[in-house]
């Protein structure tokens, strides 16, 4: 019984360590203000929607996301849904202690976009958007 428990403990430890290591990745390409690639796989930031390329502030959003994550080690977390209809992974992204999804909304470079079942941070994103609107940051400057 002792050997069995030891084997289970070691297996679980390896599993959790591997998942922790695998959750840190390096960004290879930024597509726009809410999408990027790691090793050819597209990742879409959950809960936000940045301006489409060609729209006002689209370049600023893309450039800011690149500044925040490109070439850096990032940590990604899932919510309830794994992928969107285009096959992109849906993730919350962190660089050190910075919550990138929220930062893009806070800066006024993305709007809050709630798409169920991925709603873990909806209230935070809504609060960030309301604050960006009140202070007329970037995409909210004309409203």
Structure notes:
This protein is α+β, with helices and mostly antiparallel strands and 143 residues long. The protein has one domain (25-140): Beta Barrel (OB fold (Dihydrolipoamide Acetyltransferase, E2P)). Helix content is 37%, strand content 22%. The protein has 4 helices and 9 strands; from the N terminus they run αβββββαβββαβα. It has helices spanning 2-22, 58-69, 100-106, 122-134; strands at 24-26, 29-30, 35-38, 41-45, 48-49, 73-77, 89-95, 98-99, 111-112. Strands 1, 2, 3, 4, 6, 7 and 8 form a 7-stranded mixed beta sheet that branches. Strand 3 (35-38) and strand 4 form a beta hairpin. Helix 3 (100-106) runs parallel beside helix 4 (122-134). The longest helix has 21 residues, at 2-22. The radius of gyration is 18 Å and the shape is elongated. It starts with a helix and ends in a 9-residue tail after the last helix.
Short synopsis of the structure:
The chain has 143 residues and is an alpha+beta fold. It has four helices and nine strands.
Amino- and carboxy-terminal Cα gap: 68 Å
CATH-defined fold name: OB fold (Dihydrolipoamide Acetyltransferase, E2P)
Radius of gyration computed on alpha carbons: 18 Å
Structurally, the number of domains stands at 1
Give the biggest sheet.
Answer: 7 strands, mixed
In terms of structural class, how would the helical and strand content be classed?
alpha+beta
Helix content: 25-40%
Mean pLDDT score, rounded? 91
CATH architecture group name: Beta Barrel
Order of SSEs: HEEEEEHEEEHEH
Number of helical segments with 4 or more residues: 4
Question: What is the molecular shape?
Answer: elongated
Oligomeric state of the chains? single chain
Spans of 5+ residues with little confidence (pLDDT < 50)?
none
How large is the share of residues in beta strands? 15-25%
The CATH class turns out to be Mainly Beta
Number of E-state strands:
9
